[in-house]
Amino acid sequence: MLKIVPDPPLSTEISHSLEDLLVQISERLFCALSIIHLNTPAHFTNIGRGLSLTSTHKIEAARQLAELALSKLQVRH
């Protein structure tokens, strides 16, 4: 699927602290998971269903790592 509108460039006013970046990563991964769940029809073939589940698993694992890093960063403050 092609995107019609590209993502806007990052503003220079956005704080680029590690904590802010981890929050943005976590939010984007959550959105990716939501899109996969909404776009996985029940009539997928076994291969398509397997690829969807694998994608979901990998995104969820990355999100958990971002949340873990964020929690460790917050403990230090």
Number of strand elements: 0
Backbone structural class: mainly alpha
Give the helix proportion (percent range): 55-70%
Uncertain residue ranges: none
Report, as a whole number of angstroms, the end-to-end distance.
42 Å
> Any idea how many domains?
1
Profile the largest sheet: none
H/I helix tally: 2
**Whole-angstrom Rg:** 16 Å
Q: Could you spell the SSE succession in H and E letters?
A: HH
Strand content: under 5%
Residue-averaged pLDDT? 78
Approximate shape: flat
Summarize the structure.
68% of the residues lie in helices and 0% in strands. It is mainly alpha-helical. The radius of gyration is 16 Å and the shape is flat.
Structure description:
The chain is an all-alpha fold. It has one domain. The protein is 68% helix and 0% strand. The protein contains 2 helices and no strands. The chain starts with 17 loop residues before the first helix and ends with a helix.
Main features:
single chain; 77 residues; mainly alpha
List the SSEs and their pairings.
Elements: H1 18-38, H2 46-76
Helix pairs in contact: 1-2
